[in-house]
Amino acid sequence: MILEGKTLVLCGVGTGLGSEIARAAVRDGANVMLGARTESQLELVAKQIDPSGERVGFASTDIGDDARAQALCQAAADRFGGVDGLVQIAALDAVFGGIEDGALEDWERTYATNVVGSVRMVRAALPHMKKRGGGSVVLIGSQAWTLPSTPQAAYGASKGALMSAMYYMAKELGPHKVRVNTVVPTWMWGPPVELFVKFSAKQREISEDEVIKEITDKMPLGEIPADEDVAEAVVFFCSDRARMITGQSLLVNAGEYMP
């Protein structure tokens, strides 16, 4: 129960990684406040994880809006007495294109969400963590920032910018005992990747196993990490076991990339 007594704000909770982080956090003793734009989805996830409603709350939010970002963190403080950590999952990842064929408007939207939106959430959570005498911020990066594998230049570049922002935040917030770290996944076996595999197999008229093999051939462990595997790394960073770790990134990639 490495999160016993802690309250986490999880922003960007859907059917994939966000829900797995929430499930792992509750399993390990935390109270969690779930945030995303779709309230019906939040309600569904909350009921699945904690039917009693004692340790899971939720509130519709938008990381593009200062007031709603602040309201999510305040809801956690009102419900559970404070905020000990923020896990910033929300991101715009459905933008495709490169330098020549990518729309600059898509670059602007992607940076506004993935970089500015993430910083907005940290700023909203910070006053609450200061009141607790410290806390943990966990950002979700992407291996795409340094190892391009799909035509998503704007997304990959935005995650690189978020990584740079992490270093600045870790240095600035360290004196307040607020740690800032990033979990960096590769492909994650969950709903989005499952859909990609099915679509790619159908489009190319090959089996799903062949698509998966193309991905895992580059991974020494020979398996696509699951959403649950990434969630375990997030829980570790949120816990006191990582109390002296800040400004760091942890690859969860089955060894696909070894910098």
Topology:
Elements: E1 7-11, H1 17-27, E2 31-36, H2 39-49, E3 56-60, H3 66-80, E4 85-88, H4 104-131, E5 135-140, H5 153-173, E6 178-185, H6 191-204, H7 208-216, H8 227-238, E7 249-252
Parallel strand pairs: 1-2, 1-4, 2-3, 4-5, 5-6, 6-7
Helix pairs in contact: 1-8, 3-4, 4-5, 6-7
Your description of this structure?
By secondary structure, this protein is an alpha/beta fold. It folds into 2 domains: 202 residues, NAD(P)-binding Rossmann-like Domain (Rossmann fold); 36 residues. The protein is 47% helix and 15% strand. It contains 8 helices and 7 strands, in the order βαβαβαβαβαβαααβ. Strands 3-2-1-4-5-6-7 form a 7-stranded parallel sheet, with helices on both faces. The chain is globular, with a radius of gyration of 18 Å. The two termini are 32 Å apart. The model has no long low-confidence stretch (mean pLDDT 94).
